[in-house]
Amino acid sequence: MWHSRSLHAVAAAVLTTLPLILATSSPKRGLCHVPSKKYPSDDKVWVNTPGSDLTWYYNYGASPSAAYRNTDLQFVPMLWGASTNDTGTIFLDTVTDLINGGTNITHVLAFNEPDGTTATGGADISPSVAAAAWIRQIEPLKDLGVKLGAPSVTGSSRGFTWLENWLKACNGGCNPDFNPVHWYGNFEGMASHIGQMMGTYPNQTVWVTEWGYANQGLEETQAFYNISTQWFDRMESITHYSYFGAFRSDVSNVGPNSAMLTQSGKLTDIGSWYLGGASTNNVPNGDAAQIAKFCGWVFVVLAVGVWVVL
Ligand SMILES: *[C@@H]1O[C@H](CO)[C@@H](O)[C@H](O)[C@H]1NC(C)=O
Ligand SMILES: *[C@@H]1O[C@H](CO)[C@@H](O)[C@H](O)[C@H]1NC(C)=O
Ligand SMILES: *[C@@H]1O[C@H](CO)[C@@H](O)[C@H](O)[C@H]1NC(C)=O
Ligand SMILES: *[C@@H]1O[C@H](CO)[C@@H](O)[C@H](O)[C@H]1NC(C)=O
Predict the structure, then answer these.
(1) Domains of the chain
(2) For ligand 4, atom 1, which residue shows the shortest CA distance?
(3) What InterPro entries would the database entry show (predicted)?
(4) What would the pLDDT profile of 82-122 be if each residue is shown by its tens digit?
């Protein structure tokens, strides 16, 4: 019942207000940092482009990226995963040390796609293991004034079920301030999904920490990018968003047209628009042979492997 009313309201808001404004920059924009081992200098594009409007970043890990130390990008640490054998407080200690050392940490993220499989980059953890890890490592940060992001579930309906089971397992011990959302699909589906998230958790703001319209033509991808960023900018309860994205088109695992860099590392139209700039007319190309080798997920999985061992 609620769902259809909310979807209707969302659709109406989109139709009546979107064409009026073409926002070209937004303080809500952040970088979902997917580093390239082959082209480490790509990291600089996001901070060295004059007028870049990005204000924050995350890298799926607890520690800042070396490339963004001493820049204006504010770091948002993430506790990527958890395991039954893991009983320490490495994440909590790392973030506390950063804060004590003067790093401005105002928000943290927790658990990357815990309801997803590791094959698609998910942390694949049970709600009860995640609840225990949250209570030990995330909830104490509230006392330091840090705002807590709920687990970043996938955009599928099982994400809602997972969140519900997680809150039950927490038994009152998990009190997130905002809800990160991931979405790969069309705009209508995304608006409905985010509407459902807002309806289910009305007291929490929304961050869209990964989103895109995977494997579409260039024009569809750009139209989707335009309408979604305009919508995010208008929605008061969507306070942060980070496009998935920040890699070269020939290594993209979401199709070449979603990438913000071309195969030769130049900003695509979407890449430039995201930074608040003009069209570049640089057309992204794919490379079928390279897609299987996409290094972003491998990096994340390796990083987590190391972290768990530590
Ligand atoms: C936890 O530790 C046990 C015993 O050392 C081991 O058999 C198991 O594979 C470990 N589980 C995980 C998720 O690491
Ligand atoms: C920390 O970051 C927040 C949010 O970006 C900002 O409002 C605040 O002024 C910053 N604090 C310091 C001490 O720089
Ligand atoms: C939201 O916050 C209000 C005011 O603090 C509270 O009365 C209400 O129970 C909260 N709703 C949920 C779903 O937590
Ligand atoms: C997207 O917006 C840009 C301006 O930011 C505009 O130049 C472009 O034509 C738009 N593309 C589509 C497909 O809506």
Answers:
(1) 2-309 (3.20.20.80)
(2) 226
(3) ASL1, Asl1_glyco_hydro_catalytic, GH
(4) 999 989 999 999 999 999 999 999 999 999 999 999 988 89
